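Example for tutorial group B:
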């Protein structure tokens, strides 16, 4: 096999053979193809795309670059959720224990945040003592004893994706539907779950803001799931403003705890329940997640799961040393609070990282005292900026400069749950 010929084939818009794909991914994962050739192929795929069966082989090769977790010893139906990432997206923190409390087992392997969207592991690590690294044996034990876990992916899960994703990040080849779909699905399929619900975000805080492209991504991932024996449904949800009222690690854990205690913001509850219902359908369970949430059972499961991973919720969550208020400059209705800008502000306050190995602040973030559609009065607080480092506030304020609008008429944002795509 010849890497140059493979790049040329894709560059010229032809289909790669199964052997070419398997050889290239294997050779790249084992250092026999250098980054510059993988980057050239990624750029060729970016422009030329991939046929469905070609992408299926590509995804299989990425899965086969590592191990697939064996969850056959789990005594409940397994089902997971993946989100394409949004601002204030703390859904997993509520959903994992909720769906567990409904009788399923949720094996959630998550990542850390990069850029303006937060990572679930960063949020959970705001809980004193909580640890993200579980061995495969511990994962199976968590599923059997506590109905689920949130943990970091081990190095054996789709290692080809780990390398390729880092490369795409620095070669402007992230925003390609086949590359995104194969990246996400290879990791989720390798995780061993029998079923999967995808939360595909659209809107200003989303990774692919337009509905058309998000729908194509959703359809592509649902098809890949079916090709590899994982029952998959995608739910397209809107992310024009922050989900709930907080963006930032400990702030989001606190909001998730409120939600598990029956006192969550409407939008977070709506998205969480929509995803929970789809997960339960795929798991073949007949439970009412709204009733389970209201009963407090999901909160009890969350506390159990956190404690089993070393978390000490009884110590409380850390809080920022400095809180800066942003006030409304006019009275009226808040018509816009841009998700991406709030995400960037939270990141600049210290909640997120710019490079893979940077530490994050557990306490930094933004609290939205008002959300679009709510009345505000001039001089009253709109946002709280939380940080331990007041030197970061100006940069956060700069991110928010065009993010807020106050008018006379409430906005009409459209439904939060836009579409459900199944196979
Ligand atoms: N998330 C992933 O895991 N991979 C992508 O390519 C994009 C988002």
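The residue assignment follows.
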């Amino acid at each position: 096999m010849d890497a140059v010929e493979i790049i040329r084939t894709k560059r010229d818009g032809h289909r790669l053979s199964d052997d070419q794909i398997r050889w290239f991914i294997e050779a790249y994962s084992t250092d026999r193809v250098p980054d510059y050739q993988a980057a050239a192929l990624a750029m060729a795929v970016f422009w030329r795309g991939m046929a469905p069966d070609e992408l299926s082989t590509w995804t299989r090769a990425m899965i086969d670059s590592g191990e697939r977790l064996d969850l056959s010893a789990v005594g409940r139906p397994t089902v997971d959720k993946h989100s394409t990432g949004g601002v204030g997206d703390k859904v997993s923190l509520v959903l994992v224990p909720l769906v567990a409390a409904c009788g399923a087992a949720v094996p959630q392997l998550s990542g850390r945040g990069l850029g303006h969207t937060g990572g679930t592991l960063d949020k959970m690590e705001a809980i004193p003592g909580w640890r993200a690294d579980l061995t495969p044996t511990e994962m199976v034990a968590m599923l059997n004893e506590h109905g689920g876990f949130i943990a970091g992916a081990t190095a054996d899960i789709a290692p080809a994706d780990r390398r390729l994703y880092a490369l795409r990040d620095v070669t402007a080849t992230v925003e390609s539907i086949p590359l995104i779909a194969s990246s996400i699905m290879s990791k989720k399929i390798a995780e061993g779950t029998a079923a999967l619900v995808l939360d595909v975000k659209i809107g200003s805080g989303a990774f692919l803001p337009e509905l058309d492209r998000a729908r194509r991504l959703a359809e592509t991932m649902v098809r890949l799931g079916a090709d590899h024996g994982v029952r998959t449904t995608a739910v397209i949800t809107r992310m024009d403003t922050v989900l709930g009222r907080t963006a930032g690690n400990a702030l989001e854990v606190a909001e998730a705890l409120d939600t598990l205690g029956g006192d969550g913001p409407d939008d977070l509850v709506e998205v969480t329940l929509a995803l929970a219902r789809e997960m339960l359908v795929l798991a073949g369970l007949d439970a009412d997640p709204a009733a389970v949430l209201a009963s407090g059972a999901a909160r009890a499961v969350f506390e159990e799961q956190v404690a089993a991973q070393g978390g000490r919720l009884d110590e409380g969550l850390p809080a920022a040393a400095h809180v800066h208020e942003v006030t409304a400059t006019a009275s009226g209705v808040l018509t816009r609070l841009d998700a991406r800008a709030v995400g960037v502000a939270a990141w600049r306050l210290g909640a997120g990282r710019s490079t893979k190995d940077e530490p994050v602040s557990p306490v930094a973030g933004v609290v939205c005292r008002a959300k679009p559609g709510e009345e505000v009065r001039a001089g009253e607080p709109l946002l709280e900026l939380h940080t331990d480092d007041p030197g970061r506030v100006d940069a956060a304020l700069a991110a928010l400069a065009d993010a807020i609008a106050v008018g006379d008429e409430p906005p009409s944002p459209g439904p939060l749950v836009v579409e459900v795509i199944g196979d």
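The first strand starts at residue 79 and ends at 83. Compare this with the pattern of hydrophobic and polar residues in the output above.
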